[in-house]
Automatic annotation (TrEMBL):
Signal peptide: 1-37
Protein name as catalogued: Glycosyl hydrolase family 13 catalytic domain-containing protein
Region of interest: Disordered: 64-83, 198-217, 572-595, 705-726
Keywords, sorted A to Z: Metal-binding, Signal
Cofactors, names only: Ca(2+)
Record bears the keyword Signal: yes
A GO BP entry: carbohydrate metabolic process
Entries under PANTHER family matching the protein: ALPHA-AMYLASE 1 (PTHR10357:SF215), ALPHA-AMYLASE FAMILY MEMBER (PTHR10357)
Recorded superkingdom: Bacteria
InterPro entries, sorted: GH, GH13_cat_dom, Glucodextran_C
Molecular-function annotations in GO: metal ion binding
Organism: Marilutibacter alkalisoli
Biased composition (Low complexity): 713-725
Residues in Glycosyl hydrolase family 13 catalytic domain copies: 54-472
Amino acid sequence: MCGRARMRMRTASNAVVNMLRWALLSGCVGAAATASAGDLHVPSPDWRDQVVYFAMIDRFDDGDPSNNDQGVGEYDPADNSRYSGGDLRGLTRRLDYIQGLGATALWITPPVANQWLNPDRSYGGYHGYWASDLSAIDAHYGTLDDYRALSRALHGRGMYLIQDVVVNHTGDWIGCGDAVDPDDNASIAEHCRLRGDAQGRSAPVQPPFDRNDPQDPADREAAIYHFTPPIADYSNRRQELDYALADLDDLNTENPVVRRALRKAYGDWIREAGVDAFRIDTAFHVPAEFFNDFLHADDPEAPGMTRVAAETGRADFLSFGEGFGSDKPFGDAQARKLDAYMRTPGGLPSMINFPLYGTLGDVFARGRPAAELRHRVESMMTLHADPWRMPSFIDNHDVDRFLASSSEAGLKQALLAMLTLPGIPVVYSGTEQGFREQRRAMFASGFGSGGRDHFDTEAPLYRYLRDAIALRRGNAVLSRGTPVVLAANPARAGAIAWRTDGKEETALVILNSAGHEVLLDDLDTGLPAGTRLQGLFAIDAAPRDLVVGEAGRLTLVLPPHSGEVWRVADTGVRSGRKPSSRRALSPPRRRDAMDAEPLLQGGAMDARLRGHDGDGVAVVGSDFEAHGTAPGTESIRLVIDGDLGNAQTIAIDEAGHWQARLRADDMIDPAIEHRVVAYDPGSGRTSPAQLFRVALDWRLAADITDPQDDDTGPTGTYTYPTGPGWREHRPADIERLRVWTAGAALRFELTMRSLSTAWHPASGFDHVAITAFLQLPEADGARVMPQQHAELPDGMRWHRRLRAHGWSNALFSHEGASADVEGTPVTPVADIAVDHDARTIAFTLPAGALGHPTTLAGARLHVTTWDYDGGYRPLAPEAGATTFGGGEADGARVMDEVSAALK
């Protein structure tokens, strides 16, 4: 140990870690080699080129069962709220598995000693974010020797160690009522109390963090903590910085004593365990100016992290912060907040790219328009000075798994997009094994494992990720280049294409986020005609080569949920050589190959035409007529917004004319400009595009008033959880349901007793989950209400099921649904609009999301409320902090419900 380090860590031995088998990945997995333990301290890598594997220690692997149960009721692998047994030795023995995937760095949750069990919440600190002692290893995870062994084993493989750290809070021992005035000592003494935990403690064990008693004038004067109530308004900056996040004890990070203690504790982890980077939890809840001190302080006894790292040979110690929050489509508020932290002088050099996470999920999991990803890419490249060093991800331990509400096809696309865009890609453990549960254990004896290990290197998603990571690592242009978005469908799921330019290389990436074939016509690549594109990667297909056509353009037919990557092999047309058309994709169109007569003319529209907008674009309110000419062609396909899978095939008459009637009920946003072209599949020719907008005529189909105070479950005995935000506000009480239809498009609006935003929800409401079941005028369907321990009433059967809460918005068909399985994911999901003043939540679904029914007349809608956190919250005879009460564990998860028959 360093002479000036005073850590209460267990003493390390000098034993060499046992020889480990490993696979060296350099573009592809090579032969296994033998490697001994590496150095504790190694130089920093170029972080742009790294791929990170993120593991929750407790849920990854159990290498030492003897440390699992510490005897205070905190260990129970059958309970998601308790320790499962994962530890540092488990991580070390699985490094072959992690490196074989292609990861070059391992990020772990905080290994420090935690509050093991919080009786007030009936929840355990297995996750690592409730610190009791920042200078010690948690007894469940092992010893300092174990941690050093992990670090050396990683370094011996050329890999790096990233430790999760918390500077905003400790565990939960201080409880302050809402009436407390944080600026008044008398009020603090009156309204704040200490509470004990399962270990018999009422404070952290580490000075000065043990000075937390609001009743003690000396502790109040020391000001180690903010004695504050839980955050009630996340838009209030004082609350965000100083109030208790999820009731956790908020450290006063403006106090020099606190700052010095944090620098001392975390600097010693770099020295003593060889940590190469920090992920900093809840960075938004700490002043941005704090990080200049934390990283760069010139204090001989407790220097800043970059100074400690430099002492150990690390010239580029990366610290990246967590700023939890996704932006609305085409919004940048959270991205700008992230950027402000990175641009604060001396502040954090990097932040996790949460806005990109949100948009990747919206586009590839929820079927939102591809243009939303275009905006996000262009925004991050414009806003951020160094997006290449911002970690990116598609799911993690704090949000729903990607597969909880999406398909494997969408997951593959999201991963490919992440791996071909700037940023440090992060893969959350279990993604490569197809996990759908947020904190399921990877090892056989852990929570939710099903009694078996999940380290299968032949699993389809493991193999896919291995190949996709190899693509990134084998082509530096993908980790260091600058993307230029070339095209993105503005109206719906579909094509998005970007070209990435590096110093010496150029790559082209094209994805189709739709579940049907898409026509990407007249793509301007920005490359010279005749440029040869070498296929590098394709999802579920063999890579194909292309040659760029006339004027640098390509017209391609994209398979459903496809993704392809090419590199520029050479540019320009060599002497005597013309662009090749020998490929299975459509060649570039010729604009003069079809009659230039517009496809849409005002006179050709039916009586529902509303006129034109200020730009002269046609505006329609329902189904409409289109016509045009295509001389010399037997038939054409009429393609709206690139949707080739649902395009009409139209016969051409003897005079070369055609006409067709088009549905409008797939187009629910009047602000979107839609695009229609006539396409000849035989020749690959397309007409000039015509633009139009749709402002649907919505018709009221049902208006149901629901009784107040009936949010007591099917037995009338249910009670809300005891935690703040439920009982006092009763957010699951429905007061009114209104339903509108426009053709086969559906909109329904719920008026609620109250709407909560206490947890800063992305969807605009929390403390309640809405589950809605739609029965179409069809014979089949399902009666079961998945995961709610109930069936639909009155013999109803559902064909579409919507589940939405603060951080999820999912839609399912009844195929494959059971008591445990939610059904088959369907896109696009509903548009959600929240009006807090009116207490309403509105959901709008296009006809395509419902399977393009001919009508909704005679359909039935059934809506229920409960709450959700990685699954519907539990029910018990007695309510708990996050558990509903008044029923048996297998009782129906329904707090209130309302039905409507559509006319």
